Amino acid sequence: MVYLLNEKISFPDPRMGEEDGLIAVGGDLSVERLLLAYSNGIFPWYSFRDGEKLWYCPMQRFVIFPDEIHISHSMRTLLNKRKYAFSISKDFEAVIRNCSNLRIGEKGAWLGEEMIKAYTELHKRGFAESIEVWEGEKLVGGLYGVTLHGCFFGESMFSLVPSASKIALIALAELMKANKWKLIDCQFETPHLKSMGGRFIDYEEYMDIITGNTAHDKEEQ
User: Fold this and answer.
1) What is the CA radius of gyration of the chain?
2) What fold is seen in the domain 62-220?
3) Is the pLDDT of residue 41 over 60?
4) Helix, strand, coil proportions of the chain in percent (round to 5)?
5) Which of 93, 134, 214, 216 lies at 20 to 30 Å from 81 by C-alpha?
6) What CATH number does the domain located at 3-59 have?
7) What is the Cα–Cα distance from 205 to 219, expressed in whole angstroms?
8) CB atoms < 10 A from the CB of 8, how many?
């Protein structure tokens, strides 16, 4: 079942959604609604056909645990050359706009001005971060996402040179390991993310991790 949202900041039970994870249509992209959404594993997409806001929450979640990040031999060789450097939220706007340039026209989603404005506001409020990859002074890759509950909810990434987005993802995972953050939510499976260590977990386990109800989290407290 797909629900029509109104001005009230709320969502239906994600377990009642469609098989592909679609649970609701409409609503706004306010900081309050977005924070409620991500706290429950829900994320917005735009319909390519009519620009409508679509809210998804798949019951099988494709995630990367930071300590399971896979770094291939060729990637280790590239990293050891130190050709590229990375930074954290040095230029969030540049990252999201590069992601937008690459996604306009893609089937199924469009990262337009309303989305850019919404996630930039999340960043200003301390709930979204970016990883930039630099070749000298040139921005050549990066990713951005929402940061909540010790988790990183990935939104998009881009590469202007081969492997730049992989470098960004590795940098993110290493930073998360160092700070004992829990998981990277990839939203959907791709061959690229699967090769980096992505795997599926069910929604109940996913929510236990986000809310800190896992045995692992309790041992660390």
Assistant:
1) 17
2) Aminopeptidase (3.40.630)
3) yes
4) 35, 25, 35
5) 93
6) 3.30.70.3550
7) 16
8) 8
